[in-house]
Amino acid sequence: MTDDKVMTIEEAFGALEDILNDLDSDQNGLEETFAKYQKGLEYVKLLKSRIDGIEKKLAILEKENGDDNV
């Protein structure tokens, strides 16, 4: 698996999807399910941070180009 700090948004979504599919299989013990759930939450946090950063950059670019409808 790629290090979370250098993981692209697409890779993080893919890893999150893998976790969700695995959790849907109902073939995990409680501790394994909890560990995967925690890892999934880490991916969600990473994705939120990356997407928020992109939105801020877009807002700056739009403002610089005179488009205040952000």
What report would you give on this structure?
By secondary structure, the protein is mostly helical. It has one domain. It contains two helices and no strands. The chain has helices spanning 9-24, 30-64. It is rod-shaped, with a radius of gyration of 17 Å. The mean pLDDT is 88.
Question: Keywords for this structure?
Answer:
single chain; 70 residues; mainly alpha; 2 helices
> Helix content range of the residues, please?
over 70%
* Shape label: rod-shaped
Distance between the termini: 36 Å
Q: What radius of gyration results from the CA coordinates?
A: 17 Å
The proportion of strand residues reads under 5%
Order of helices and strands: HH
Overall number of domains: 1
Number of helices: 2
Q: Averaging pLDDT over every residue, what do you get?
A: 88
Low-pLDDT segments, ≥5 res:
none
Structural class by sheet pairing and helices: mainly alpha
The total strand number stands at 0
Largest sheet: none
Kindly summarize this structure in a few lines.
This protein is mainly alpha-helical and 70 residues long.
List the helices and strands and how they pair.
Elements: H1 9-24, H2 30-64
